[in-house]
Amino acid sequence: MYQNYIFDLYGTLVDIRTDESGRNFFKKYAKWLRRQGYHFEWKQFYRHYTAAEKEHRERAAQSGRYRNPEIQIEEVFQEVFAANGYILTDEQTAALCAGFRRISLIYLRLFPDTLACLDGLKKAGKKIYLLSNAQRSFTWQELELTGLIPYFDGILISSDEGCMKPDPAFYEICCERYQLDKAQSVMIGNELKSDMAGAVAAGIDGFYINRYPVFHAEEKLAYRYVSKEGSLLEVLTQTGISV
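Above: the chain sequence. Below: its structure as tokens.
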């Protein structure tokens, strides 16, 4: 039925837990920064970073370009460091962002059924795309670590595009860039208000992967398919692909 399978990343293909807001995290990051030659007190960095991020998100929302705008976190880092006398190159900024994410990471792993699902789609000759609400400088290193990049025929990250799910514009960008027929495309994700609502708004079928211990049926369904047990292998079986 479908030729194009569009996946969410976090919570769908990848199981991840991070702490990017706690006191201990910012203490660790400030300590790491000092080893890189950048001297911040952790409270100082925390105040500047959180204030700058909030301001960037507010400006993006006020621009009115998208319903659900996204920012580039690199610009936040450059502003914070510049306010403290450090003018960063793009390469330095990327390294500092990547370090921020690595230090925040508690765990990162593929779900047990991820590769079996993707391998099954590839064997069936299907096209696979990634549509992720994420920051490239955080996420690309995780795509490399998990070995997922070769599976995708196209990768869209919200920080690159200026908008995020559930904004239908994000889905439209994907379909236009890769010339996808919406009738032959399905969005697979674990978030009802993000992945599924966005797919419906964009006119694309949704496949909801329920990763929670219990399943509650929606009064008004925002998806065509559902795996109540949270199994990606049902993506294959329910869309007519032999396992």
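The radius of gyration is 19 Å.
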